[in-house]
Sequence to fold (291 residues):
Amino acid sequence: MPLRDLLLGLAVIAIWALNIIVIKVGVAELPPLLLTTLRFMLVAALLVPFHPVARHQLPFLALLSVTFGSLHFALLFIGLGQAEAGTGALLVQMGTPFATLLAVVFLKERLGPRRLAGLALSFAGVMVLAGGPTLPSPLPLSILLISALGWAISQLLIKQGPNVPPLALAGWVALFAIPQVALGSWLFESDHLAALRGAGWAGWGAIFYTAVMSSIVAYGLWYGLLRRHPVNRVVPLTLLVPVVAVFLGVWLLGDSLGIHKLAGGGLVVAGIALIALKFGSGKARHPQRAD
Fold:
């Protein structure tokens, strides 16, 4: 890969890793479901008018908005409000093992020794993380793992559904998810106007960053790289996302970096590498990004 494209790939990884930190900062100023709603509104406004889809694709996109928009994104924002950023980034990566298990159950894919070892390492890593001090209660762990499951279910739907361009998918999923998440915010959160009036640059910046930088700019750069290079040269870079997010959390937010996070995070990343990469075959799995 030419140096220019390698730097672009690393820039995308940095954007996605920093996205976890930005969400963590944003939910400290705005209620998580309100923040998610505003993010979806901005994504839809910027993408839907320029990326039309066929009418027969709308039911699929509406279903995906439940699993990807509400179950994954909404719970990710809620979970990051209660867990350290780096720990959250590692737990959300469990979407890959979950997707593998779902493919085995519903698509009858074979689970060879390498992928089985990857699953074992990933779940062992979660157990190590859960035993550390960064998850003070089972609630953040459960929320983030359900968010990862929502991502995994979405990947199964995307694999079996109609072929929708990535930016069109992001825009229309956001559009259909707006009323769902807004209803959740209205039911479970309060003082919306006061929260909006009291939000500073961090809250509004989080809306802009998660919508524009993470969902639009990073996606555009990423799929440009995939068009120019084999998948196996590009996808391995995504393994850096949780690693960079952990160290950004330590550097920017003062998160702890204990043995549980190092050991558990290492096991999770190693397990995902075994699952997602086909060593020696020149191929790699290419899941949709969760960011």
Observations:
- The two ends are 24 Å apart (CA to CA).
